[in-house]
Amino acid sequence: MKRLLLRIVRWAAVLLVVLAIGLLARGCYAFRDRIPGYTLDIKIDAATTQAQPRPLRAGFARVKINPDLSDPKRPVWLAGFSHNRAATAIHDDLWAIACVVDDGYTRFGVVVLDAIGFFHDDAVAVRRACAPEWKLNYTTVCSTHNHSTPDLMGLWGADVLHTGVDPNYRKQVIAAAARAFGEAVAALQPVRVAFHEIPTPTDGLVADTRKPIVFDPDIRVMHFTSAANGGTLGSIVGWANHPETPWGKNTEITSDFCGYLRDALEQGVTDEGRVLAAGVGGIHLYVNGAVGGLMTTHPSVTVRDPYLEQDYKEPSHEKSRAVAHQLASRILPVLTSGNSASTDVAPIGIRARTIELPIHNKLFLAAAYLGLIDRGHVRWKKMRTEVALVTLGEASIACVPGEIYPEIINGGIERAPGGDYDIEPLEVPPLRELMPGRIKFVFGLANDELGYIIPRSEWDEKPPRLYGSKGVYGEINSCGPDTARLVHAALADLCRGTPK
Ligand SMILES: [Zn+2]
User: Which phi and psi angles does 94 have, rounded to 5°?
Assistant: First the structure.
């Protein structure tokens, strides 16, 4: 009897050890670094160009990134709202759209994906897929954060245990982004550029669904025209709003207001053959900025289509179009006014740096362990990401690797009543105060999607809850309460190191 008991204990111990080794091995595999040793520290200042200016050149290109919906056995899972939301149709095309600018010395490229988000490893994969002869000094891959696109982050599969990412689609997007860069390089030609900041009231357009109420409301535009004939080659439009207008019941793939806006700028707006607004041609990029906190055209917001003179409240594609038309009705008059100051000299400066961030979010760790979030970690509970500050003439661009709260950009962080840390704001001064130049762009979800970047003094997981509410949304999709401080500090450092 004693011998049997001993045998059982021995076997149980062996089993436990095997199980422990198995779990540990799974952990090591799931958290392995996908790009071991990868680090980046770029410091290119614009001084050479300023001393001996050469003419600015720019090129634009776009590549379609529609998923394949032809096989009913392989559903395409839509990202952003809930599990088990399979795409039923393609309402309008998804794109990877690139712009490359070259000041004669330095070449910067940005590609924007109609996607929920793209991890740092994938942005590096795009970088590595670019040919050396394209001579890109720095590349940024941004996602519009569109919630009607295939899952590329792994969180929205059939159920909580399965990723929604189709690895073939991810490869397709990486290849398409790189191809867009290559074609944009091939399209480089002498240009003039004009920068615009367009005041844009948020009423009837965007809601802030979490206190404090702070927006990054205005539209910023870089408009590139041919130096030879003045025609529009393209633009980069920056604004801040979640592209989730058709909301969670929509199962049709769409580029949301971002796509309608690009079309309106290029082709204009017509209704039954009547031209309501003329387009300017060219290829346009929409880049999302400080969307955290959370900026959205919520179903409670009624949007008026200024061209079609109709109101839209219920989530629909027509409502997405109305949001786009609101933006286009402000942008098109500026692009066509003809009296805006443009220049053919815009020196490029780039400061970009790899940073490491701690992950406190247990759900993110569990999702990584289960293989849902398929991205490398430099080591246990630490992930690698990237920040950058790019200057282009009198414009500057803060490249932020996630969804930053607008108060970190524009000011207005509060020592929020009910917050878990009763502290004064840490992420100050506001980044836009530190950024150089006249027109200051924010490229959000740039080279990564870390989720929400929440000020520590507004962090709230425990009772009492924020501002006496029943609880707030955001922390569940954030790496942790240190993210904002570290991202802010890294960007502030890049700003301080850049000549004003
Ligand atoms: Zn979001």
Answer: -100, 150
Judged by DSSP in three states, 223 sits in strand
Q: What's the angle, vertex CA 80, arms to CA 267 and CA 388, rounded to 5?
A: 70
Cα of 63 from ligand 1 centre, angstroms? 24
CB 303 within 8 A of CB 254: no
Closest CA to 472 of 457, 461, 456: 461
Other C-beta atoms lying within 10 Å of the C-beta of residue 195: 23
Summarised one tens digit per residue, pLDDT across range 109-118 is 999 999 999 9
Nearest to residue 458, comparing CAs of 242, 215, 240, 210? 210
Length of the chain: 500
Distance CA 339, CA 320 (A): 31
Q: Is residue 182 scored above 70 in pLDDT? A: yes
Report the separation in Å between the CA atom of 146 and the middle of ligand 1, taken as the mean of its atom positions.
Answer: 9
DSSP letter, residue 446: B
pLDDT in tens, 59-87: 999 999 999 999 999 999 999 999 999 99
Gap from CA of 323 to ligand 1 centroid (Å): 18
What percentage of the chain carries pLDDT values higher than 90?
A: 95
CA of 298 relative to ligand 1 center, distance in Å? 13
Query: ω into residue 306 within 30 of 0, thus cis?
Result: no
In DSSP terms, 208 is beta-bridged to 295
- Non-local (6+) Cβ contacts of 394 within 8 A are 195, 346, 437, 438, 439
Q: What is the whole-number distance in angstroms between the Cα of residue 55 and the centre of ligand 1? A: 39
Q: In Å, what is the CA distance from 305 to each residue of 144, 321, 336, 402, 470?
A: 22, 8, 20, 30, 35
CA of 84 to the centre of ligand 1 (A): 19
What CA–CA distance (Å, rounded) separates 241 from 417? 26
Two tokens at 460?
A: 């709230």
Is this structure's pTM higher than 0.90? yes
Compute the distance from residue 117 Cα to the ligand 1 centre, in Å: 9
**291 Cα–ligand 1 center, Å:** 7
> Are the C-beta atoms of 376 and 121 separated by less than 8 Å?
yes
Tokens standing for residue 438? 């006249």
Whole-number Å distance, alpha carbon 403 to ligand 1 midpoint, is 6
CA of 190 to the centre of ligand 1 (A): 37
The closest alpha carbon to 127, from 195, 42, 220, belongs to 42
